[in-house]
């Protein structure tokens, strides 16, 4: 079962269900966003498939133009439990699917960026690097386990704690 309450940091053992859940969400999003010619990728730890992960499906959607996001069919997306989050990140928008809107329990986080932008390439490079480098994957999992234990109720600190590792991997892209 995927889903985390607001600010909760909890890791679970790898699940064969993650890919199936991603594929179901991908179909839903492609059907809803087909006029925008989007590209959709599975990212985040659940896309790695073999390490402990937060029970959230992370999805990357590439748009031709970031401005297209303003034209999305938000009433239809809300009917499917997707909501735009008020996250201030330059050149990126984030929406989430809530399995329970009252408790703010998210099951899917969608990162919306321009295709071929730095965001697009960095997310995919990080995923692909970890998939192809077992030692880095093990190091990342150990870091996540330590941070989840240290910050079980502080999503921001958990994420900040991973940043140096992410930056180290992304430097290999250059």
Automatic annotation (TrEMBL):
Gene3D superfamilies documented for this protein: Beta Polymerase, domain 2 (3.30.460.10)
Pfam families: GrpB
InterPro entries xref list: GrpB/CoaE (IPR007344), NT_sf (IPR043519)
Protein name: GrpB-like predicted nucleotidyltransferase (UPF0157 family)
Organism, scientific name: Shouchella xiaoxiensis
């Amino acid at each position: 079962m995927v889903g985390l309450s607001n600010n909760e940091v909890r890791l679970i053992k790898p699940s064969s269900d993650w890919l199936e859940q991603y594929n179901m969400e991908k179909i839903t999003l492609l059907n809803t966003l087909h006029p925008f010619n989007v590209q959709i990728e599975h990212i985040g730890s659940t896309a790695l498939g073999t390490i402990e992960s937060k029970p959230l499906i992370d999805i990357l959607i590439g748009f031709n133009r970031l401005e297209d996001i303003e034209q999305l069919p938000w009433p239809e997306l809300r009917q499917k439990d997707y909501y735009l989050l008020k996250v201030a990140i330059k050149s990126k928008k984030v929406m989430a699917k809530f399995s329970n809107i009252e408790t703010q329990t998210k099951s899917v986080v969608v990162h919306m960026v321009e295709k071929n932008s730095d965001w697009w390439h960095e997310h995919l490079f990080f995923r692909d690097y970890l998939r192809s480098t077992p030692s880095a994957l093990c190091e990342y999992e150990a870091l996540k386990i330590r941070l989840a234990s240290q910050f079980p109720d502080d999503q921001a600190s958990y994420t900040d704690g991973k940043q140096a590792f992410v930056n180290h991997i992304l430097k290999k892209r250059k």
